[in-house]
Amino acid sequence: MGNKTIRVKRPVKVKTVVTEGFKQQAKDELDKEIRLIDNQIMQLELQSKQIQDQVSGVSSAFYGEHDMEQIQQSLEDIMRRIQQMGELKQELQFQEDNIDHLTLNNVIITGSLENYVELKPGENLYEKFKDAEIIVKDGIIQDIIQ
Length: 146
Hints:
- The structure is a single chain.
- By secondary structure, the protein is α+β, with helices and mostly antiparallel strands.
- Helices cover 52% and strands 25% of the residues.
- The protein contains three helices and four strands.
- The chain has helices at residues 20-56, 65-99, 125-128, and strands spanning 6-17, 107-119, 132-137, 140-145.
- A four-stranded mixed sheet has the order 2-1-3-4, with no helix packed on it.
- The two termini are 25 Å apart.
C-alpha cells in the first residue's frame, strides 16, 4: 500500500439556524435581486421599444427581407428574455413570501461549499465522504461536522 495519498474535493452543506436576523437578511437579499431583475426587464423593454421605433420610423423599403428577419428575431429574443426574467422574479418573490413561514431555531440548508479531503490506502472512502456540514447562526459558525 505504501504512503500514497490523494486530495479530492468533497461537498460541504451549509446549514443555517433560522433567526429573525437571518429572515431579515434573506428578505433584503431577495429584494435586492428582485430590484436588479426589474431594472434588467426595464432595460430590455426599452431596447425593444427603441428597435420598434427605429423600424417604424423608416420606410419598410429601406430594410431588406433579411434585415426584417433579423429585427424580428432580435425582438423575439428580447421578449423571451423578458419572460425568463419575469419567471425568475416570480420565483424570488415566492421564496421571499416563504421566509415568513420559517420557524425560528429550525436548521435549514442554505448553501453548499467544497473542501479538500486527503485519501490514502486503507481508509474508508465512505467515511471520508460522509456528509460534512457547517452550522451557522446569524453569520457566525456554530459547528463544523466532518
